[in-house]
Amino acid sequence: MQLLFETFLEQLSESVDEADFRDAMAGAAAGLELITFAYLSLPPQRSGEPRLISNYPARWTAHYLQNRYQKVDPVIMRARCGGCPFRWGPDMRGFATSQVQQRLFEEAAEFSIRCGLTIPIVDRRGCIAAVTFAADEPNPAFLRIAERYEQALQLMATCFHICVRRKLSGNRTVDGVSLTPREYECLQWAARGKSAWDIGGILGIKPRTAAFHLDNAKKKLGVRTKNQAIALLASSRSSML
Length: 241
Fold this sequence. Notes:
Order of helices and strands: HHEEHHEHEEHHEEHHHH
Largest sheet: 5 strands, antiparallel
Number of strands: 7
Mean pLDDT: 89
Structural class: alpha+beta
């Protein structure tokens, strides 16, 4: 379990987009014999769009978002209240399900999503999210895994949420200074020990272009060296946790 968790954290630290994050969680879940997962982060404003990172069938996730099911999904409604992880099935005992909600479960079942373990997340900023590990049926093996690793899965879900919030929120401010997407991206890779040559290869740009963006980042941050810029980046990340 320790090796799986360490690998998971390393993959999170190296993730730069939704595909990276999806692969990191999918790999960790598969190591625990959990096949499908979904991370749903609700927008702080009513007019905002939720963020969904999942290895559910693409047709289902597109249908879910198109119909704004996050507004009526009983699982998400319960997760909004925070609290401990909970297991659920088609009946959702304790919830009066409407016809729309019942249809949601029926449609999800067509994609082999019939039950699951959901971990509510309400962070200190008030952001609401949920990580669900789903299964086709509540068989003994799934229930045993969900019970045995519940605390570990809760920790994984929290780490996943924090990393997604930090890296994909669109906030590219370092020490109060706004950087361009490319400047921020180059600085992130530099913080991982990559040279301008390495960064150029990773991002598909010329090494001198990568160096140009790093120099611009340093100028904006008012520092002379790359290490000083990296230190400011690390400080800004810590303040976001």
